[in-house]
Design goal:
By secondary structure, the protein is of the alpha/beta class. 43% of the residues lie in helices and 15% in strands.
Length: 349
């Protein structure tokens, strides 16, 4: 699937000389046709153009038709804000390289079918976002040398298939440490599923921050769900009904955090007055939430660029230096987090 054609940088001087000889014209005339100068007769121009095509000459600055000019990006679905942010990152990065992107989901076609579709399209390769890659598909990718890059895979792939994500563990730890720094000691979490690499790492980062602060992990105020609004809502309602409810909740994604905000509203709690809420992702909805969410920001644009870059390198026979690439996250503070009432009520000394 990798392009094997001539690169744009080659001068192809000898090829133009040969074309001039076959056409019975000077090299200067061929050069004028190549650069689309007007001072060449129509019949001569047509003859030289025909020979340029026949001999496979590529004009400087023009794409090589032998190199695939599209990639395929496949998602579990196209419904959530995370997906839309990653789509935009991939499309923007591909556009910078002059590459088109074919997008699809695994709801109607399996990964196996998308691998076949990728080959049928003559695409440079396939980016698979948040999906489980079966062992048979992994074997096929490795054995056939198919250019495939995974973004946030649900399970760890074989070392021969590169994957890209973010520093989920340290990002989650930063989020919880922020809440601890505000004075919260009772912090709940609406976590992702344990089988998800990202979800598991964020839960581990949450636990590590509590342990470092000397706070015991309490499963009564932790619930694991899909990265889903309604599941996040129900999970947080359960947490808030516990015997000793938290003063802060860390959600493993923006959509879960929106569910936490709704759970707080239904429970008659103000945010951040009664309940501080911290999220992970920082998609567009985080800043538009009410109140705007403090969040761990994923570099979506960089994720898309890196996935596209690695895929193009693979298609051209250049494997990445590391099978796993993790991009740094950033803490973004807004108005959904503040100190607990107990701390705010303490008299100044």
């Amino acid at each position: 699937m990798a392009g094997q054609g001539r690169t744009h940088q080659e001068p192809q001087y000898g090829l133009l000389t040969a074309i001039a000889s076959v056409a019975g014209v000077s090299l200067s005339t061929v050069s004028k046709v190549v650069h689309r100068r007007p001072d060449v007769g129509a019949a001569t121009r047509a003859r030289v153009e025909e020979l340029l095509v026949r001999y496979g000459y590529i004009r400087p600055g023009e794409p090589d038709p032998s190199v695939p000019r599209q990639i395929v990006a496949v998602f579990r679905d196209l419904s959530g804000p995370y997906t839309l942010e990653v789509v935009r990152g991939i499309v923007d990065a591909a556009d910078e390289l002059g590459i088109d992107v074919v997008t699809g989901t695994t709801s109607q076609r399996s990964i196996s079918q998308w691998l076949e579709e990728c080959e049928a399209l003559g695409a440079a390769g396939l980016i698979i976002v948040i999906s489980m890659l079966a062992e048979e598909n992994q074997r096929r990718i490795v054995e056939q040398g198919l250019p495939v890059v995974l973004v946030d895979p649900l399970s760890a792939p074989t070392q021969e298939i590169p994957s890209i994500g973010v520093t989920n563990w340290s990002g989650a730890m930063d989020a919880v440490q922020h809440l601890l720094g505000l004075g919260h000691t009772r912090i709940g979490m609406v976590a992702g599923r344990s089988h998800s690499l990202a979800g598991g790492a964020r839960l581990h980062g949450y636990r590590a921050a509590l342990e470092e602060a000397g706070i015991a992990y309490d499963p009564a105020i932790v619930r694991s769900t899909d990265f889903d609004f309604h599941e996040g809502l129900l999970a947080c309602l359960q947490i808030l009904r516990s015997d000793d409810p938290p003063t802060a909740v860390f959600a493993a994604s923006d959509v879960q955090a929106l569910g936490v905000l709704e759970a707080a509203r239904q429970h008659g709690l103000s945010v951040p007055g009664d309940l501080a809420v911290m999220s992970f992702d920082d998609t567009l909805v985080a800043a538009m939430a009410c109140p705007p969410l403090s969040a761990v920001r994923q570099p979506f644009g960089e994720l898309g660029r890196e996935a596209t870059r690695v895929l193009v390198d693979l298609a051209e026979g250049r494997p990445p230096a590391s099978p796993r690439i993790e991009l740094a996250t950033q803490l973004v503070l807004r108005t959904s987090t503040s100190a607990p009432r107990s701390v705010r009520a303490e008299p100044a000394i």
